[in-house]
Specification:
Length: 111
């Protein structure tokens, strides 16, 4: 978590609206929901374009043609990262498979 805090503190982290929604979804405790919502409001929401959504579909189709299934949210993250040259910071191991097929850069901790 320290790495994430550093990236946020340096202004190097971006957040997609769908990721915000995904993180907030399923939080049954209203206090926890509000606390996380307030913390995430410090992030500007990365604007998305038609090209981002088209690129996400291309990423999905390419991965699927190689036998790798990805979610709509994951493919949008990949598309935005590719189009903007931003490495993805994640613990989701699915992104390791996407990275091999899409030439996606994953964030490496600085240690």
């Amino acid at each position: 978590m320290a790495e994430c805090k550093e990236l946020v503190g340096e202004g190097r982290a971006v957040l997609l609206g769908l990721v915000r929604q995904e993180l907030l979804s399923g939080i049954a405790n209203r206090q926890h929901f509000e606390a996380l919502r307030q913390k995430m409001r410090s992030f500007d929401q990365e604007p998305l374009s038609t090209e981002d959504h088209e690129q996400a579909a291309e990423c999905f189709n390419h991965c699927r043609s190689k036998g790798v299934q990805g979610s709509v949210v994951d493919m949008l993250i990949c598309a935005v990262a590719l189009r903007r040259g931003i490495p993805v910071f994640t613990r989701d191991t699915d992104f390791n498979r996407y990275a091999k097929l899409l030439r996606l850069k994953l964030h490496s901790p600085r240690d």
